[in-house]
Design goal:
The chain is mainly alpha-helical. Helices cover about 50% and strands about 5% of the residues.
């Protein structure tokens, strides 16, 4: 007979009666872990503070006047808390006000202890500590935590200062060399007992900020200079063929058009086989890749017959003849470049950059012009400028070619 065929014990059997007794007495719950009690912060549990706050599982005791600086959201929070406590006191004289003790702290939801600790560091810091944050020895992890929490609680001037410190740190040459693009979540989760009460998580050591996090902060806080630093790093990664799908996703999320265009272009050049193998690409992104492929191919076919507008010099004797000569030069440069370095037909960006290099070499007499510059003796520099402007225009509008219309 199988084990499943054993008859169930009757509810009034001795064994079942003993089991129910143990459960009712809580004896079987003794071995199950309960929530960890909150611990006081080693630095910012200040004895003469007058407000106790609980962040994650850490208690902070600070001065209420410090948290209300900079017209922050804490000022309104404390006013509302005071009104609520006053109403409670009218009905119960023994009611303890929120934030007066460890047993009844003000609970901050959605923040980490590291973020709140960074805020208190900025509010209580000495001058030399603030100065160090503007140097190469700055704690960038602390600054990122500071920006997040000051943005949430509207510490405007502190947030502006922290963003300036971050920009100062990441605008240094090589500052992004050791910055990870994102954090790989490959740490195994420890097993838990069935029906066990989960313990309150304890924050581990914060990892250094990633490129994704820095980009998100800069975009969220509308900090253009920091965002430019982050985008420069994304462009370099795209040029190296790294993290293309992630760059595309982040670029579309925050409307970073230069990053989006370059990422789509780099993915397009890898071919449809690679697109199909990239699971992170959405259906919409695949459609845009196909759309961009045909749009850029069509543009390249028309480009030789569409020279950019030429600004003639003051000494130009015949603008009509000069413009005609430039049209011939433009077509020749585009065709010559692809003969020197064969490129894929859809690689419009590579082709136009190569054409600009050939034009520059001709104007600066690094390679023979074979008489193509004779027709514009006083507008050669203007021809180079017009070519560079057209190249920049195509590069800046690259994302527009990868549309949903297909």
């Amino acid at each position: 007979m199988d084990q499943d065929d054993h008859p169930a014990l009757p509810p009034d059997s001795p064994l079942m009666t003993m089991t129910h007794s143990f459960l009712n007495d809580g004896m079987l719950l003794l071995s199950m872990p309960g929530p960890r009690p909150p611990s006081r912060d080693l630095v910012y549990y200040i004895n003469d503070g007058n407000s106790v706050l609980l962040v994650e599982n850490t208690l902070f005791k600070v001065h209420r006047s410090v948290l209300t600086k900079d017209k922050s959201a804490f000022e309104t929070m404390f006013q509302l808390s005071g009104e609520t406590d006053s109403a409670r006191s009218d009905s119960s004289m023994t009611a303890a006000q929120e934030g007066e003790s460890d047993d009844n702290p003000i609970r901050l939801q959605g923040d980490t202890a590291d973020e709140f600790r960074a805020l208190l560091w900025a509010l209580y810091a000495l001058p030399h500590e603030l100065t160090s944050a503007m140097s190469s020895d700055a704690d960038c992890t602390q600054l990122v935590c500071l920006v997040r929490i000051t943005h949430k609680y509207q510490f405007r001037s502190v947030m502006t200062w922290a963003l300036s410190a971050l920009h100062h740190y990441y605008s240094r040459p090589g500052a992004f060399d050791d910055v990870l693009t994102t954090v790989a979540s490959n740490t195994p989760t420890p097993p838990t007992l069935p029906h066990a009460v989960p313990a309150t998580p304890v924050s581990g050591p914060a990892h250094p900020p990633t490129l994704v996090q820095i980009t998100e902060l800069a975009a969220l806080c509308e900090r253009a200079d920091l965002l430019e630093c982050a985008m420069a790093r994304w462009k370099r990664l795209i040029g190296e063929g790294r993290d293309l799908t992630l760059a595309l996703t982040i670029g579309e999320r925050f409307n970073l058009r230069p990053v989006v265009g370059l990422a789509y272009h780099a993915l397009m050049l890898r071919g449809k086989t690679v697109w199909d193998a990239e699971r992170a690409l959405t259906r919409t992104q695949r459609v845009r890749l196909l759309s961009g492929y045909y749009a850029l191919t069509k543009l390249w076919d028309a480009l030789p017959g569409q020279p950019p507008a030429l600004t003639h010099g003051a000494r130009c004797a015949s603008q009509q003849r000069c413009a005609k000569a430039f049209g011939t030069l433009w077509r020749t440069v585009l065709e010559t470049g692809t003969q020197v370095m064969p490129l894929a037909r859809e690689d419009l960006l590579g082709r136009i950059m190569l054409a600009e290099s050939v034009m520059k070499a001709m104007v600066e007499r690094e390679i023979p012009s074979q008489g193509f510059l004779d027709g514009l003796p006083h507008c050669r520099e203007s021809a180079l400028v017009a070519t560079s402007m057209r190249m920049r225009e195509i590069k800046d509008s690259l994302a527009d070619y990868f549309s949903d219309d297909f």
